[in-house]
Amino acid sequence: MHLIETRELTHVYRGSIRALESVNFIAERKARIAVIGPNGAGKSTLFKHFNGILKPTSGGVLVRGEPITKENLREVRKFVGIVFQNPDDQIISPTVEQDIAFGPINLGLDEETVAHRVEEALRLLGIEDLRERAPHHLSGGEKKRVAIAGILAMEPQVLVLDEPTAGLDPQGVEDLVTFINRLPEDYGMTVIFSTHHLDLVAEMADFIYVMDRGKVMGSGTVEEVFARPELLTRAKLDVPPIPRLIRSLQENGVEIEMAYTYRDAEKAFLDAYMRER
């Protein structure tokens, strides 16, 4: 049984705008899944179907093998948490602490459990010092951490992040990538995210869906997708710099192993250098 599955999912907005067309998507337990594509590809619309924010025009969405209904919508939203691209869309309380507590309180949890979850979320995101701050006085990166903390306090099994690195400085991006990569192994969580920064995908994902104009153009592991430059070109995307450089070296006769992350590339270059000595 898949945690999330869409079957021929189609969504048409008013005005006959076809945002999704026959999308088939699967998310397994403890997976790290990237959904990539240009603006208007349908990524955000797809994400909003995962916990019932939007209803399909046709096709279906299954969560733990069951379709989303009015009767199970509350449980679905406990199971699948979504962090929107703009944190201002979901931060509503006067203080950070109150905002993080909002979700657990609405789940009907007792006061002690709510307090424990808030403390744990503050600790996980490293924002204990922000607890009494007013969210509208925070930086964009701080707001994003608060938004993620508010979802994590509800203890979802699937965390969906729409452009999580947008607006973050380099250190903020590095910290967020490290945090996201801990979630599957440390907490058994599945993470689904979209990003325009393809150089980060190999650092953050095990599997990729490539979308354009509401359709899934292709999918596969990082190695499988980045080995298909024609697929990325069709979706108006570029192969990230590291695999593009190494492929160029290989085509010019340099014996070097393919790499997709900085760390793997460093090892590949050192190995190639040592062989040539």
**Could you give the order of the helices and strands?**
EEEHEEHEHHHEHEHEEHHHH
From the 3D coordinates, which CATH architecture of the largest domain would you assign? 3-Layer(aba) Sandwich
Rg calculated over all Cα atoms = 20 Å
The H-level CATH homologous superfamily of the largest domain, spelled out, is P-loop containing nucleotide triphosphate hydrolases
Beta percentage is: 15-25%
Structure class: alpha/beta
**CATH class of the largest domain, please?**
Alpha Beta
What is the approximate shape? globular
The CATH topology of the largest domain is Rossmann fold
Q: Could you give the count of β-strands?
A: 10
Strand order of the largest sheet: 6-7-8-3-9-10
Fold blueprint:
Blueprint: E1 4-13, E2 17-27, E3 32-36, H1 43-49, E4 58-63, E5 66-67, H2 73-79, E6 80-83, H3 96-106, H4 111-125, H5 140-152, E7 158-162, H6 170-187, E8 190-194, H7 198-204, E9 207-212, E10 215-221, H8 222-226, H9 229-234, H10 241-251, H11 262-276
Helix pairs in contact: 3-4, 3-5, 4-5
Polypeptide structure, described:
It is a single chain. With 277 residues, this protein is α/β, with parallel strands linked by helices. It folds into two domains: 4-92 and 156-237, Rossmann fold (3-Layer(aba) Sandwich), CATH 3.40.50.300; 240-277, no CATH class. It is 42% helix and 22% strand. The protein is built from eleven helices and ten strands. The protein has helices at residues 43-49, 73-79, 96-106, 111-125, 140-152, 170-187, 198-204, 222-226, 229-234, 241-251, 262-276; strands spanning 4-13, 17-27, 32-36, 58-63, 66-67, 80-83, 158-162, 190-194, 207-212, 215-221. The strands form two sheets. It has a six-stranded mixed beta sheet with strand order 6-7-8-3-9-10, sandwiched between helices. A four-stranded antiparallel beta sheet has the order 2-1-4-5, with helices on one face. A hairpin with a 3-residue loop joins strand 1 (4-13) and strand 2 (17-27). Helix 3 (96-106) crosses helix 4, helix 3 runs parallel beside helix 5 and helix 4 crosses helix 5. The chain is globular and about 65 Å long. The protein starts with a strand and ends with a helix. It is found in: Cell membrane. One of its GO terms (molecular function) is ATP binding. This is ABC transporter ATP-binding protein. It comes from Methanoculleus receptaculi. Belongs to the ABC transporter superfamily.
